[in-house]
Records
---
Amino acid sequence: MRLRQITVFTALLGLLCVPAHAEARDISRDTLPANDGWASEGAGTTGGAAADDAHVYTVTDRAGLVRALDGGSATPKIIKIAGTIDANTDDDGDHLDCADYATDGYGLKKYLAAYDPRTWGSAKPSGEQEDARQASAAKQAERIVLPVGSNTTIVGLGDKAVLKGASLQVKNADNVIVRNLDLRDAYDCFPVWQPNTGGLGDWKTAYDNIWLTGATHVWVDHITASDKGHPDAAEPTYFARNYLRHDGLLDITNGSDLVTVSWSRFADHDKAMLIGSGDSATGDRGKLRVTLHHNQFESVVQRAPRVRFGQVHVYDNRYVVDSDDYRYSLGVSTESGIYAENNAFTTPGEIEVADLVKSWNGTALHQTGTLFNGFPVDLLAIYNAYNSGSERDLTADVGWTPTLHTKIDSAEVADREVARGAGAGRIP
Ligand code: CA
C-alpha cells in the first residue's frame, strides 16, 4: 500500500517536472539526410554546418542579415533569423515604400500614359519614363536582393521567423540550406510592361522569394513562401492585364542542379515554381534535377511546378486548389522529365482532372498513385483523353527512374501528414 502511494507520487512528480514547452531543438547545423532527393547526390548538402563559432550569426534586422551574408561569400556560415526582418528598410532600419525608391520623375500615371498600347503600339517601352522606371527599380533591388553564397545555412529561430519583401538569390553557388523560414511578399514596386508577351502583353515583375540561378546542392525545407499582405488578385488591371507584383515563389533556372525541396508550403500566389526558364536554354540539358516531396501547394494559380529539361521527382505533395483563376498544377514543357508519385489534389467542383496538367512542347509525364478529391486517378490517361487537341499526347516514358529518395508514403497518408507538418515553424 505504502509502496504504491510512493510510486504514484513519484509518477506525478515526474509529470510536473516536464516543461510546458520543450526547448526547441537547435537545427542550425543539420545537414540533408542521405538519399533525401537530388540534393543528396555526390557530396550531399551540408550548408554552413562546418562554420566556426565566429561565423554563426543571429540577426534581427536587414543590416545584420546583409552583414552576415557577406556579399555572398563562400565562407561556411550559419545565419539564424530571429523575429521579422523587413528587406524594404534603410540602413537605420526605417521602412521604405515604393515612393521612397521612385526617382528621375517616375510616376505610374505617367508611365501608363507613355506606353498605352493605343498610342505607343507594341514596341518595347523606351525613353524617359522607362529609364526612370529602371533607375527606380535599381534602387529597390539594392535593398531587397540578398545574395546567398556557397556553404551557407539560413534558418529561422523558433516558429515566428519571417523575411518580408526580400528576394534571396543563390547565384552560381554550391551547398546552401534554407529552412524554417516564412518568406513573404517579394513585392516589385516597378513592374515593366512587355507588349509582346503571350499575345496580349503582360506585366513582368523582377523578384522571386527565392531564386536559384546556377546553384547546385540546395536544400529548401520547411519554408513558407507566399504573397502574404499583397495578393496580386487585389491589384488593378492596366492595359487589360493584371498589374502583377510578384514573380516566382521559388524559381530554379540557368543550369541549377541537385535541389531538394521538402515539407514546404507555397501559398496564395500566381506562378509558384519555374524549373527552367526558356526552351532555348539548352545548357540546362542534363541539369535542373530537382526533388519535390511533402510540400503543400495551396491557392496557387500555376507552375507547381512548370518544368523544362529537368528530371524532377514530384512525390507525396498536397495540392489544394481553390483559386478562381486556377490554370494548372504540373507544367510539362520542353524535354522535361516529371516523375510524379502519390500526390493528392483537392479541388473545387469546377476543376477537372484534365485541368491539373498542361503541356507546351512536352512529350512525357510519368505518374502513379495520384488522388483526386480522395479518388485514385490516372492523370496521364485523362490528360491524353481530354487535352485540347492542339497539345500532343504525352507518353509515360520520361527516360529515368528516381533512386534518391526516402520513404514514399501513399498519397492518402502524405495528404494528412503534409497538412499537419509542412511549412515554417513545423520542424518536428
Ligand atoms: Ca523568376
---
Amino acid sequence: MTSTPTPRRRAYVETYGCQMNISDGELMEGILESDGYEIVESPEEADVVLVNTCAIREHAEQRVLGRVAQLGGLKKERPDVVVGVTGCMAQRLGESLLDGGRRVDLVMGPDGYRDLPEALEKLRGPGWTPGNGSGSTDEVAPARKKVTELAVLDLSLGENYQGLEQRRSEGPSAWVPIQRGCDHRCTYCIVPYVRGDEKNRDPREVLQEIRGLAESGVSDVTLLGQTVNSYAVDGWGFADLLQSVARVDGIRRVWFTSPHPNDVTPEMVEVMATEPAVCEQLHLPAQSGADRVLKRMLRRYTVEGFLEKVEMVREAIPDVSLSTDIIVAFPGETEEEFQATLELMRRVRFDDAFTYKYSSREGTPATRLPEEDFVPDDVAQERLERLIDLRLEIQREINRAEVGRVEEVLVEKEARGEGQMLGRTRRNKVVAFPGEPELVGQYTKVVLETTTGATFVGRELGPQELVGTG
Ligand code: SAH
Ligand code: SF4
Ligand code: F3S
C-alpha cells in the first residue's frame, strides 16, 4: 500500500430518518471515500459536514433544523468547513435552506449524491480536491471559492446509483436498497415528492452486491424500498429476487421493508415460507383500521383486504411476527374510526407497531381537506396514547407467552450492563443475555427467560442443551 502524501480531506455524515436514508448516508460516505476523503466520526474533525435529513413529519424536521444551525456554528472558528444538508428535507426545502442564517453551503436532494465530489469542488475550487497536494484547510482562502452556495435538487428517473458502493460499517448485517422513490400517492405522504417515482435496481447487480457482501462476512441483509415488494425488472418480480437473495451462499437471514399490503402476493408468501434464510417477520403498514380513512389516505385497500393478506401470511408461516405503522388523527378521523383502528390492532395482534400522529406536509393532497376536518392536537395526542397503551398491552401478552422458547439469535453488540450482549431473533425480537464481546457477529441459541414486555432477557444454551434444538 502507498501512503497518502497530503493530509486527506475529512468528511462527516450524520443521518436521520428511515433505513433508506441510513443506507443513503452510507452511499455518500462510499462516494466520498472513493474520492479520497477520510470518513470521520465527529463534525469537529471534519472539513465537510453533511446532515442527511428526513421530511416525513414536522417534528422530525424541526429537530434537524436546530442541529443544522448548531453545526453551522463550526464555521465561526473554521470558515472553510463545508456544511451541507442532504436527503428528503433538503429536497423539500431546497434553496431556502441556503439563507436564514444557518450557514449552509450545500443543499442536495436524494438523487444528487453521485455529484457530491464535483459539488464540493465547485464550492471550494479545484485546489481543494483531496489528495492533490493543496495542503491543509487553512491554506484555502475563501477568495478561491468558485461558488459560495450550491443547490443540487434534480430528481432523476435514471438515478439508482448503479455502480457506486456504500461504505458499510463492519458487522454481519447490511442494508441493500433495491428500489428508490415511490409510485403511490398516499395523501398524507411527502416521500413521492422528495424522492420521485419508483425506480428499481437491476436484479443482477443486486445479487452481485449481495454475493460480495457475503464474501466479506455479511450474513444478514435487509432489502429496502418504499413499496419494496412492488419490485419488478425485466420479468423479475419481488418474489424472484427474494428467492435468489435467500439462496446466496453465506446469507443466513433476509429481511425486507416496507412492503405494501397490495403487493403481498401468494408467490412472495411462498418464498417467505419455503426459503430457510427469509426471516419469520413481516412489517405490514396498515395506517388505519377504518375504510373511509384508508380511502381518504389513498391506501388502495380496505380493512378486509388487509386482513386477507395477514391471513395469507399467517396460514403459510404460522409463527410469523408482524409489525405495522399506524397514523392517528388523519384529517376527518372520527372517534369511531379511531376505535376501528384499535379493533384492527386487537384482531391482528401485531408484535410491534410504529405509531404516529398525523403531521401535515405542505404540498400533499391531505392538506387540502376541509379545515374543519383537522383533528385538534389534544385529541390526536390522546388517541396516540390510547393506541400506544393497547400496543404495549398486546406486545406484553404475546411476549410473555414466548418465554421459554429457544431462539437463534444473531449477536449484535454489547448491552450497556456489565457482561450483557444484545442479539436479535429471526422474529426480530431483541434479547439481552450474559456473554462475551467475542460473540458479536455470531449466531447462537438462547432460551428466553423473562420479558420486559418489549424485549427479552435470556441465557445462551450450553452444548449439552443444544441437542435436539435444531
Ligand atoms: N413507504 C412506507 C412508509 C414510509 S414512511 C410505506 O408505505 O409503508 C413511514 C411511516 O411514516 C408511514 O408508514 C406512516 O405511518 C408514517 N407517515 C408518513 N407520512 C406521515 C405523516 N404525514 N404524518 C404522520 N405519519 C406519517
Ligand atoms: Fe408514502 Fe404511501 Fe409511498 Fe409509503 S406507499 S412512501 S406511505 S406514498
Ligand atoms: Fe424520511 Fe425520506 Fe425516509 S422523508 S422516512 S428519510 S424516505
---
Amino acid sequence: MGQITAAPGAEGAGSLIRTPVNLLRNVIFHKFTVYSFSSSDEGPRQNAASRSHAGGVLLERLLRCSSMRLERPGPAIPRSSGSRGQTRVLRLQGSALTGTRATCSAGSLRGARVLVTGASTGIGEQLAYCYARLGAQVVITARRENVLQQVSVLAARRVGVKRSSQVRPRSRAVSGDSPAPGGPALGAQKALYVTGDMATTSDPSRVVKFAVDELGGLDYLVLNHIGRYSFSPWSGDVHHVRGLMEVNFLSYVQLASAALPSLEKSKGSIVVVSSLLGEFPPTPFTAPYTATKFAVNGFFCTLQHELAMRSSDVSLTISILGLVDTESAMEKVSGRTRVVPYPAGEAALHVVRAGSLRQKESFYPWYTHLVCLVRDWCPFFRDVIIRNSYY
Ligand code: NAP
C-alpha cells in the first residue's frame, strides 16, 4: 500500500473523463498500459485451466488502460519483524501518455492485516492463498470449521509463523510449521480462522472484532462470501430472497461498518468482490442473486463517494467478475450457458492487485468491461448477448 504513487491530478481528471476518451487516445498513440506480475508460485489449488486467454490480453490491456483510476498514495503497512520472505514483484504502470504512473510492489502487502470472508472455498480460498503468498497476516472466515482449518494450514505452511496462543471458541490460529498436505509453500505471516454465519446479525461484528484483536488492527477487509442460490427461474420463494439479502448484502454492510474505524486508523481498504450480474441489465435465472449484487454495488458505490467527500483515507475497490470456474458456480451453470469460465486463481490475483492499487473499480476477465460498455452504448447488442448466453 505504501508504495503506490500517483501523479498529481491523476485522481480527479482520470476518474471523471472515463473510458471512451482514454481508450481512443491510447489506441491512436499505441500507449498501452503495461502491467506485469511475477510470482513463481502457483496456488495450491490453482486450476489447471489457468491458461492465458491470449486472444483477450491485448483488449484487456486496452480496457485496463482506459479504466485505471489512480488513488492517492496508500499508507505504509506495518511490517512485523521476521517478515523477510521471497521478493515478488507486482507492478502496474500507468499510461505514459496520460502522465500518470502507478507502481505497486507486492512487498507492500507483506505484514498487511487482512480479513477475507467466504474463504473456505472458491475465489475466497484463492484470495487467502494470494495474500498468504505475499506475506500478509490473514484472518479467514466462513461457516465450515474443518475446511477453514485446511485452508489456513495451507496458507501458513512452511513459514516461521507466529502461533497465536489464544484459542477462542470457534476460532483457531494455524502456524507455518503445522503438518500440511502437499502443495507449494505459501507465506502468510499469520493465518487465523474464525467461523461465522453471515446470515446472523451478531457474527459479522464478532468476526471483525476477532480480526482486529488478533492482528492488532486491520488494513484490508475483503468482502467475498455469498449464500447458496440456484440457477433457475424464480420460484416465488420470498423467504429465500430475504435470507440471501441478509448474507450477500446486509452482512457486507455490517462488516464494513464494524471495520471502518480500524480502517480509518490504518488508512486501509475495503475490497468488494462483486459480479457482472450486479452491473449488467438483469439476465435470466438468477433473480435473487442479481438483486443482492445490485444492492451491493449500489451501496458501496455510494459509500465510495461519501468517503471521498469527507477526504477519508480509506479506499474502496469494487471488483466486477464474470464467470469464474469455482465448484459452486460450475455446478450451477453447467450445461446452461455458453459463457467460458475463467480460473479462480487468476480472479483472486486480480482482486488482490486491484485492492492493493486502491482502484475504485476493476473488471475480470477482460470481457466484463467490454460488456459494461456495450450495455450503455449498444442496447441492441446487449440484448443479443444476453439471449445468446444461455440455453
Ligand atoms: P463459493 O465458492 O460458493 O464460496 C462461497 C463462500 O461463502 C464459501 O466460503 C462459503 O463457506 C461462504 N458462505 C456461504 N454462506 C455463508 C454464510 N451464511 N456465512 C458465512 N459464509 C458463508 O463462491 P465463489 O464462486 O467463490 O464466489 C465468491 C465471490 O465471487 C462472490 O461474491 C460472488 O458473487 C463473486 N463472483 C463469483 C463468480 C463465479 O462465477 N464464481 C462470478 C462473479 C462474481 P461456508 O459454506 O463454509 O460458509
---
Amino acid sequence: MPKIKLKHKKLQNWINEMTEMCRPEKIVVVSGDQQQKKELEKEAFSTGELIKLNQSKLPGCVYHRTAVNDVARTEGLTFICARKKKDVGPTNNWMSPKSTYKKAAKIFKNSMKGRIMYIIPFSMGPVGSPFSKVGVELTDSIYVVLNMLIMTRVGSEVLAYLGRDGKFTKCLHGKADRDINRRLILHFPEDNAIWSVGSGYGGNVLLGKKCLSLRIASFLAKKEGWLAEHMLILGVELPDGRIKYLTGAFPSACGKTNLAMLVPPKALKKKGYKIWTVGDDIAWMRVDSDGALWAINPETGFFGVLPGTNPHTNPNAMEAIKKNTIYTNVLLKPDLTVWWEDGDGPPPARGTDWTGKPWQPGRVDEEGKPIKGAQPNSRFTAPIAQCPSASFRSEHHHGVPISAIILGGRRASLAPLVYESFNWQHGVYLGATMASERTAAQYGKQGEVRRDPIAMLPFCGYNMANYFRHWLSMGKKMVKPPRIFFVNWFRKDKHGKFIWPGFSENLRILNWILERSEGRVGAIKTPLGYIPRYEDIDMTGLNFSRKRWDELFYISKKAWQNELKDLKKFLNKFGKILPKEVIEEYKAFDKRLKKYRENR
Ligand code: OXD
Ligand code: MN
C-alpha cells in the first residue's frame, strides 16, 4: 500500500484509512507549484481527460467533457447525514451516518485501483485568517485537482499552516464508475466530513465549493456565530471615491455572476462609478470588533455558466476567460477554440459538440428538437484575478464591510423592481420567503415557482427553520445591521417583454440601495416595504419613462394574497420549530395587504 509521511497525525491516519479503502496505486500530494501543474496537465492530455486548446488564441486554456449523465449538481443524490433526522429539516435529504458510511464504502472499495490518489490541502479564504477554513480533498481526478488550483488556495503553504494538529474538513472524492445509480454526495456535519462518489461534475466534486463552503460551513457558522451564504460580494465605488460593499443572494439563473461583474453604463462611469468584484457565489460573514458585518469570498476562482455569457451580458467575464481557463462541456471548434449558445458570435460551420459528436448548426434530434453545441450548464473555471473588475481586497484577512444585503428572484409579474425591508426581522422574513420562477435552462417545469430561502435551499447543512432563527439572532449582534432589500430584475409587461433593461442599468438601483443605507434619500412606504421615488433614481443616459416605472412598481393585492396562500404551504412544512418572528411578519404583511388600496 502506498504511504506518505506527514507531521499531522490525524491527517496521516485518515489518509491511511481512506487509502486502505480505495486502494490507489500511488499517492501524490498537490504542492500548488507550477511545475507540478504542468505535469498533471500533460498526464491528463495523454489519457484524454483533458484536451489542450489552441495556445496562441487561448493561452493556458484546457477543455474537458463530463459523462453525458453527469452535467449538473444532483440534488436528489445529495444527503445531509446527521445523527437525528429532525436536525436536517424538511428541505434536506437525510440518511443516518452509520449506514451511509457503510453503503458508500462499498462503492469506494478498491475504486482507485491502478489510479493515483491526489491529496489537495486547501484553504477557503486567505491562509491563516480567522475567517478561513481548511480542508483536505482526496481525489482520483486530475480535472478536480486543476479546478481546485483555480478555485481555492492550494498546496504546501496550507499544509504548513495546519501544522501538527490544525482542524480541517475531511473531503473524499472518487470518480468510481460514474454510474448514476452509485452516485452519492454525502455530508457528515457532525464529523466535519464530505464523501462524494460516482460523479465528475464540478458542483459535486470541487468539495471546497458547495459542499464545504455552504453545506458544512453553514452548520459550523451556526455553531460558531457567523454566516456562510450563497451570495455574491461586490463593491460600488462612488464618485466621491468611497467604496461601499453589498452582498446578494439569488437563486440559480438570476444573473448573479453578471451582477457581480457589472460594467457601469457610460453616463455613470463618466461620473466616477466603478464596480469591484469580490466574489460571485459565496460569502462568509462575521461581526467584527467594530460591531459591523464583514465578508470574505472564500474562493479564488469563478465556476460560471457559459451559455448566455457574451460581451453584452458580461464583458468582464469574457475578458477573464481569455487565458488560464478550464472549459467544460462546450462546443469544440476545428481550430481548437470554443463556442457556446448565446455567446460571442455566430455558430461555426462545424465542430464537435459537448458529447463528442460532430455538430453543425441546425442539427436536430429524432424528435426534431435542435441539438445544442454546448451543454446548457457548460462552465468556465477562471481565476478571479483575471477579471478586469477584480477587487484589490481579496487577500484582506477580514474582507470588506457590508453596507447592504440584497435578495433577489425571478418573478415575471409579482414583485416590483426593488423594495426595502422595514427592519432586520422583516428582512429575514423576505429571505425566508424568497422564491423564483424556473427558466427553460433549469430542471423542472418552466415558470413554476420554487421557494428558495436566501438561495440556500440546496445548500443549508441543517434544519432551515433553525437557519432562519440564526439569521434573526445575528441581527441582534450588530451595532447597525445592514439594511436588507429585495430586487426583481425580471418583471414583464403584458406583451411578455422585460420592463427594466437590467444588466449595467442595475447599477442605478444599487446606487439607490446604498443611498438608502446611508439615510441620504427618501422612499415611499408600501405594504411590501419601502420603494424608490422615480425622481430619486439617477437616470442620466437612460430613457425610461415614469409610466414604465409605475408599471414596474405596481402592487397587485390579489396576486400577493395568492402568494401568501402558496407561501403558507411552504412554511407549514417546518411545523412548530418555525421561529415565531417569521409567523409574526407573515401576519403583519397579511394585515397591511388587507388595508391596502390599489391605485391603478
Ligand atoms: C452554482 C449553483 O453552480 O448555484 O453556483 O448551482
Ligand atoms: Mn451558486
